[in-house]
Amino acid sequence: MAAHTMWERVLEKVAHSPRERPIGAQPNPSPSAVANRIVTVGDPTRLRVLASMFDKGGADAFAHVSKRGFTTVTGTFEGVRVSVIAIGMGFPMIDMMVREVRATTTGPLLIARFGSCGGIGLTAEVGKVVVATGGAVMVQRNWDFFMGLSNKEDEDDHERERKAWETDGPKPYNISGVCPADAELSGWLRTRLEHHLTPLGVATGVNVTADSFYSSQGRTDPSFRDLNSTLVSRIPALVPGAEILEMETFTLLHCAACAATKGKASYGFRQEDGGNKSIRAAACAMVFADRKGNTFIAPEEVVRLEKEAGRAVLEAVTRCPLDGTGEAI
Fold first, then answer.
1. Structure confidence at residue 271 (pLDDT)
2. 284 phi and psi, to 5 degrees?
3. pTM for this one?
4. pLDDT at 67
């Protein structure tokens, strides 16, 4: 309780400080507001869990809640400067965060996402943390497909869905190619997570990022024509190694892959270029739900997992070399 009260005082003390303006504020943030090592989360509550692990419990950390909905905390962990940024949900939010952080910092950036997800693969069991060592793909609703959808009374939407997937022609959902994660930072995430959770608590694979919490994640709703009743079962067959489903990781990895290298946009996905890239990114996510069996994590397990995995993620981001020359230990 005392730590929580202290944290509230820190937020209140610095949230309206005129000295620094973090991302999401206007005018653009001060470069000193955001560190070059970043953990991004969706939930501000998860941010508080991580910030409480900062040196001195985060008592001397910079913190700000912006009008755009970002919460930023910058402090030190084991003596290394690091920021935790809560962005809310969805790929537009992480796109905005990455671009604005890049615009207001100098030097290389390491960004790790620490999120939650639904399991769709063979090893993504509820309560595990899955590292996206295989990169990520994006699943997007095919807007044109739905705008051209007919209303034939002799064919229901289940049949339309089946025909769309099993015949040539446009599909109701488009699936991108794989965008790789940074191999070194992914290795640090996996190693530190296995240290804290044991290898049995960690899985690896391809992250599937969706552009919606509902339609493109296969959540059916009779109020909308989404043609997605078989989407969750089809994705693993279409994307080898697909393990989890969420809403942010592909955009993070793609922004990093397309970030300028030495002043020029690289649009390069070659892993061997890691040491020269402006931004290196990786991701892991806690499995809160089994999307195949419709089972869910217990609330008390979430509390435990966020603390143990959160510490592991902070260790990975602060120990991984910024210049891409080290090995996970």
1. 38
2. -145, 155
3. 0.87
4. 84
